[in-house]
Amino acid sequence: MPVLAMTREMGSLGTTIGQEVARRMGYAFVRQEITAEAAQMYDAAEEHLIATLEAKPGVWDGLSEAARRHFAFVAAEVLDVALKENVVILGRWSTLLLRGVDHAARVRVGAPTDVRVRRIQERLGVGPDEARAQVERSDRGIRARIRQFFDLDWNDPLLYDLVLSTERLSVDAGTDLLCRLLARPEWQPTDASRAALQDAALAARVRAALKAAPETTRLNVKITCRGGHLHLGGTVESASGREGAARVAAAQPGVRAVENDLTVMKFPKW
C-alpha cells in the first residue's frame, strides 16, 4: 500500500486530516513516534531532536555537528517507518526525504494566516496577538530548518504531489481527496519503488550509525546504495577515519558490500 507523507502549517487542520485518512484507510498515523524512536535508537535527547526539526536555528547552528547528527537520526527513522507502508507520516521532513519514492504521496496542507490565527485562538483560548505570534514562530522555524538542511523553500508547491488549502476545504472533503488519491493505481508500490526506498533507508541508517559512533561522528560522508551495496565518497582527515567509516558501515544489517572511495586529505590548521 502507498505511504502518505504530509507537511502542514500550524492551524491548517492538516493534522486532523492526516489522522482521519489513517483511520479510514486502516493506516498507522506517525508523528511523535519518529523522534521518540530516533532518540532511543541513537541515544539522543528527544527534545533536542524536536528543536532541530521545528525551532529556528541559531547563527551557528547550521555548522554544528549536533544539528547534522540530529538530521541523520531523524531521517533514518522516517525512512524506516516508510518501509512498513500503510502509514501516514506527518512532518519530520517526510515529504522531502521521500522524494523519488514512487509509492509515497507527498502532500502539503495550508491556509491563509488570518484563518489559521482564528483557529489557534479558538483551540488554545488565547488572544489574537499570541495566536499570530505562535503561527508565525512555527512557520519561521520550519521554513528555516528546511532551508538549512535541504536548501529548498518549504512553500514551493512543486515540492509536493498535492497542495490543499483548508480556507474552504473541510476536514471531511480533504480526507476524501487523499483517500481517493491513495487508492489510485499509479500510487501503488512496485518492486522498483520498494527497492528505491530500501536503498534510501539503508543509506540513511548507515549515515545515522556513522554520526552515532564516536570514532566517525565528525565525518560527513556521501553515501549511495544500490541493492545493499554501499558506496562511500568524500574526504576524511586520516586513514583511521577512512577505515572506521568502512567498518561502521559494513556492520549495519542489510549491507552486502562496501566500496570505500573516501580520500584521505590533510586540511591546514589555521
Task: Give a nutshell description of this structure.
This protein has 270 residues and is α/β, with parallel strands linked by helices. It is 51% helix and 17% strand. The strands form two sheets. It has a five-stranded parallel beta sheet with strand order 2-3-1-4-5, sandwiched between helices. Strands 6-7-8 form a three-stranded mixed beta sheet.
How would you characterize the overall build of this protein?
- There is one protein chain.
- The protein is an alpha/beta fold and 270 residues long.
- It has two domains: 3-187, P-loop containing nucleotide triphosphate hydrolases (Rossmann fold), CATH 3.40.50; 213-264.
- Helices cover 51% and strands 17% of the residues.
- The chain has ten helices and eight strands.
- The strands form two sheets. The chain has a five-stranded parallel beta sheet, sandwiched between helices.
- It is globular, with a radius of gyration of 20 Å.
- The N and C termini lie far apart (54 Å).
- The model has no long low-confidence stretch (mean pLDDT 93).
Low-confidence stretches: none
Q: How many individual helices?
A: 10
Shape, per Cα inertia axes: globular
How much helical structure, as a percent, in the residues? 40-55%
Main-sheet strand order equals 2-3-1-4-5
Key descriptive features of the protein:
Rossmann fold, five-stranded parallel sheet, about 270 residues, alpha/beta, 8 strands, 10 helices, about 15% strand
Please give the structural blueprint.
Blueprint: E1 3-8, H1 14-25, E2 28-30, H2 32-42, H3 46-54, H4 65-83, E3 87-90, H5 94-97, E4 104-110, H6 113-124, H7 128-150, E5 162-165, H8 171-183, H9 191-212, E6 222-226, E7 229-236, H10 239-250, E8 257-264
Parallel strand pairs: 1-3, 1-4, 2-3, 4-5, 7-8
Antiparallel strand pairs: 6-7
Helix pairs in contact: 1-8, 2-3, 2-4, 3-4, 4-9, 6-7
